[in-house]
Amino acid sequence: MVKSFKQFLIAGFMAFAPAYAEINDSEQNPNINQLEAQLIDLEKIRKVQQDEFGAKLEAMQPLMATMSADEQCLYQYLSIYKESYKGDYSQSINALKQTKALCETPEYKARVVQFLANLQVITGDFEPALKNLNTAIQITENTEDDYLRSLTNNVAAISYRLMNQDEIALKYADLLISGDFTEDDKCMGGFNKYRILMRQGKGAEYINEIEQAIERCEAVENHIASLFLQLDQVRYQFPQKDSHDSAQALQAVDTLESLEDEVIKTQFKNIKVYYHALMAHMYWIADMNKQAMSYGKLAIAENISIGESEQLILALNVLIQLSLEANTMQPAYLFLAKKNEIEKAVFERKLATQVAYYRVKHANLAQELQIEQLNQNNKLLVLENRLSVETAKKQQLMMLLIVSVLLLLGVWTYKIKKRHDYFKEVAEIDHLTKVFTRKAFEERMKQMMASCKEKQEPINLAIMDLDHFKNVNDQHGHLVGDWVLREVIITCENVADHDIMIARLGGEEFCIVSPGITHQKMIALMEKMRLAITELDCSPSGASFNITASFGISSNGFSGYKTSMLLTHADLALFEAKNKGRNQVVSYASLLKGNAVVRAS
């Protein structure tokens, strides 16, 4: 059984490695010796013939003392691959770094660094992972080694997908699908491509292609990839709670039950958690609350051993809703607190991948400019040597050229500074609504909370959620939805008559903070915002519809000077506003009447 989330990922990477029939590479490539050929042949059977792979590798161990640098490179690479199944990834990473120095042949070095990138993505060390992946890709682009090309394309597609770089991941997935590779490679190309497209809401456009990808993966017995694609189909193609379509939800349950035998057979707990979370979600939509609660609890119980995931968030959301509908506030609070904790961890991981990606991209740009600068300096030295023997007129020309080069370097330096400032702003400001991101919000809340606590001033926090916003995207498109998000924030900022801070928590959910005013004034301000949103003219978007919002409010009087408690209590009040019919403002104070609610100490 897979014992941790990291073990799930590394097992997944290894299970998804391309499988090739055993071929004697010494016959195909006369430039390598017999031992190197045997090691490359071993690499190609490591997935499909694991016992034979381990036995032959162990038999080569006595030859280590007589191996060349390249032979040691290949042998150590395969040995580390075998040992990494035990789960000591730090030791494997350190060993791969040492092995990389042994590799004289670029193709062998590419094998080491792409596997090193694999492990670094899994352990969350994203920046060096991207650098090593770039190295492997650059080497692979100049090789005719089909196995290495398929291996690197697989790693790139999976790594970039896990780091939410969808455009680049799709590029490498398409290379696997359209290239001259094995059916197993094409299965993995489809696996990465269509998981991304379904997550982006484009699954309906590729129904036939997704079915073909599932059939291809089944044909090569890659049941893990097939199951993930089928579970994604259920998640993204069947209804959400607002649709109230019980018949479709039960149809989704039937589809999931048809996959139960395959799910039970798999050793990947992540698939089982995903399956149970989806069953809970669909039973909840069908108003079969007992079954939904049972599957939801089963999902979070199984997921304890593999860490936080979006599947767990899906299950927790069902448990929160069921607890609120049953008016059992204590379990609702506990589930909500756990959900908030996990969402924060997921968000921070995604943010870390984004920051690492842009830092590496920025570093590559700086390196290109540095190379260009060195080229310019070399040209300048040549000119100086020529001008040293020429007339004063030519010396004046040299000075002119020097000034031009310095100006050019100044422009390059300015561009680098502007790009650095841009990436810093991207990390703090939501590009669509121009309000703070969640990460920036948390940093500023620490400062604001400390100041208010020291001065014993009040601080109020509200969570605003646009009602039925998914319907706007579904009926009018995402461009109209983006217009609504921007205009709602502008409306709120125009209405505010006090100092406020607005941050985007995710999707259509925003946080509004106002220090220094009473709780009643905060309620009045949120009511003004709610009315202004109700009166918002949406026709400039190109579509005719109305938009409303629900607000949940708490203050330090109920939640103390703790950001986590303010968010949790405001979220509970927001749930109450939704349950009462939406388009209203609810204070956490109203929940204290008649209910036992956890308060900050």
TrEMBL record:
<dbReference type="GO" id="GO:0052621">
    <property type="term" value="F:diguanylate cyclase activity"/>
</dbReference>
<protein>
    <recommendedName>
        <fullName>diguanylate cyclase</fullName>
        <ecNumber>2.7.7.65</ecNumber>
    </recommendedName>
</protein>
<dbReference type="InterPro" id="IPR029787">
    <property type="entry name" value="Nucleotide_cyclase"/>
</dbReference>
<keyword id="KW-0732">Signal</keyword>
<feature type="domain" description="GGDEF">
    <location>
        <begin position="457"/>
        <end position="590"/>
    </location>
</feature>
<dbReference type="InterPro" id="IPR011990">
    <property type="entry name" value="TPR-like_helical_dom_sf"/>
</dbReference>
<feature type="transmembrane region" description="Helical">
    <location>
        <begin position="397"/>
        <end position="414"/>
    </location>
</feature>
<dbReference type="InterPro" id="IPR043128">
    <property type="entry name" value="Rev_trsase/Diguanyl_cyclase"/>
</dbReference>
<dbReference type="InterPro" id="IPR000160">
    <property type="entry name" value="GGDEF_dom"/>
</dbReference>
<dbReference type="Pfam" id="PF00990">
    <property type="entry name" value="GGDEF"/>
</dbReference>
<feature type="signal peptide">
    <location>
        <begin position="1"/>
        <end position="21"/>
    </location>
</feature>
<keyword id="KW-0812">Transmembrane</keyword>
<keyword id="KW-1133">Transmembrane helix</keyword>
<dbReference type="InterPro" id="IPR050469">
    <property type="entry name" value="Diguanylate_Cyclase"/>
</dbReference>
<keyword id="KW-0472">Membrane</keyword>
